[in-house]
TrEMBL record:
<dbReference type="GO" id="GO:0000775">
    <property type="term" value="C:chromosome, centromeric region"/>
</dbReference>
<feature type="coiled-coil region">
    <location>
        <begin position="6"/>
        <end position="33"/>
    </location>
</feature>
<keyword id="KW-0175">Coiled coil</keyword>
<dbReference type="GO" id="GO:0034080">
    <property type="term" value="P:CENP-A containing chromatin assembly"/>
</dbReference>
<dbReference type="GO" id="GO:0005634">
    <property type="term" value="C:nucleus"/>
</dbReference>
<dbReference type="Pfam" id="PF13096">
    <property type="entry name" value="CENP-P"/>
</dbReference>
<protein>
    <submittedName>
        <fullName>CENPP protein</fullName>
    </submittedName>
</protein>
<dbReference type="InterPro" id="IPR027801">
    <property type="entry name" value="CENP-P"/>
</dbReference>
Amino acid sequence: MDRTIFQDYEDEIQALEEEIRLLAEKYEDIRQESTFFSDEEILKSIESFQRETRGETKGHESLSDLKAQLESLETNLSFLMKFTGFQFTSHSKKTVEKTRNRTVQKHRLSGKCHSLSFQLEFQLLEMEDNEKVSAVVSDLSIIMESREDANVSKFVSSTEERGDLLTFFRSLSTYAEWYEHRRRTFLHFK
């Protein structure tokens, strides 16, 4: 009977250790997401939150400021989408490995460029060395709607092999723009 009690305790300890491990991973992911903001932005957010909780802000003024900022951001986003043709619909990031000077993250990204849909999945290795940060893309996987064109298939395959995201986005932008022109032209003659 004593043995079953000890086993129950050990099972409970293992379950708690697993829960602690999962919470630590979740905390690390949240902490890493917060590193995308500068210390100044974080301090401003904290001060703003503290003023709001103390009732120091005037609701109408801060609300109108927020609306103006939102409109400005929407205008900038609209400009960038028209300028580049890219519209990102989803992005997810998961930290796979983290050490003192090395971080490996897995990214999933999907969106459209003009009328062509795409999905990317890749790992990003960031290494910090003497205040220099270098990033390397690996395990790039690209899924595109328009793979029936042999040239696009070759381009996607070579881009996946090289892990060259910049070339992919530049080339996709140009190709998608001309793809859209061709599509409209053929619709015109039908």
